[in-house]
Amino acid sequence: MNKPVSSILSAAAAAAPRKDAHIGRMLVEQGKLTPDQVEKVRLLQKQEGLRFGEAAKRLGLVSDADIQQVLSRQFDYPYLQDGNGNYPSTLMAAYQPFSTEVEVLRSIRSQLMLRWFTAGRKKLAIASVNPGDGTSLLAANLAVVFSQLGEQTLLVDANLRAPRQHQIFNLPAERGLADVLAGRSGLDMVAMVESFVDLSLLPAGSPVPNPQELFNRASFGVLNQTLCDRFDIVLYDTPAFLSSADALIVAARAGGVLLVVRKDRTRVADLADFSDQLRRSGVEIVGSVMVSF
Questions:
Q1: What is the pTM of this model?
Q2: pLDDT exceeds cutoff 60 at 7
């Protein structure tokens, strides 16, 4: 039998104090409030009929950013405050989740979920024409926003020539994808990103003289399937098209590619050539993103 509306409203009202108590406890755990300050907040809350966060801000004890941080934890939407995590500020999805730029990233995520990550698809390569076009940063930020959605997300640094993801996420780089493909390591090289419970990284690993040969091995196909069995989303950061053919091989394994175009830098002729070669390799161009960072 369905519950009457009055019962539902009563339950919601009863839950509000518990939620406020949870917020107060988290602020104490983070060192933002002392137990005595929590009591002052609760007193003002009762006197003025305010939410806990509103009362705490009225007293000048916390900032909007402090409240947003604890609310994000309540709703399993992890992000970091400046100074935490020791990641670069360009990892905007980690530090500025409510900015216009990250809203654009979430829009890209939504389009990819609707247009690509359906019908069992889990893999996507991210590629550009020129080195320095921003592929690695876009891949890193997209990986964060996918993980914030609750998707078990793996970012694979397939740029064996100039890897960056281990630097962005402050993880060891001694072993990784190259070592797995060469048969020297296993999937224990996949590392969880501590600040984001649903995000993992497979770094590029040991420097190798023959990336194309490694990507053409059957072991890469086996690895792809294994990763898709373990994760909901697998993103591949690839080298630039003009520096090697690696991106074509990785994109062909993934089946689809998101192209990164740098404003005022990427030449139309080069992009057309890259797109043509991708299509002839059987790769679906899922979309393109123009970046300026």
A1: 0.77
A2: no
**Residue 115 · residue 286 · CB < 8 Å:** yes
Write down the pLDDT at residue 81: 66
pLDDT digits (tens, 9 = 90+) for 137-178: 999 999 999 998 889 999 999 999 999 999 999 998 889 999
- Report the amino acid identity of residue 117: F
Phi then psi for residue 58, to 5 deg, are -60, -35
267, amino acid identity: R
Distance CA 181, CA 253 (A): 14
Boundaries of every domain in the chain = 5-74, 92-291
The CATH classification number of 92-291 equals 3.40.50.300
Please name the residues in contact with 133: beta carbons below 8 A apart, sequence gap of 6 or more. Answer: 240, 260, 261, 262, 265, 266, 291
Q: How far apart are CA 138 and CA 261, in angstroms?
A: 11
Q: Which residue type does 32 have? A: K
pLDDT in tens, 31-42: 888 988 988 888
Give the pair of three-digit tokens for residue 265.
């830098």
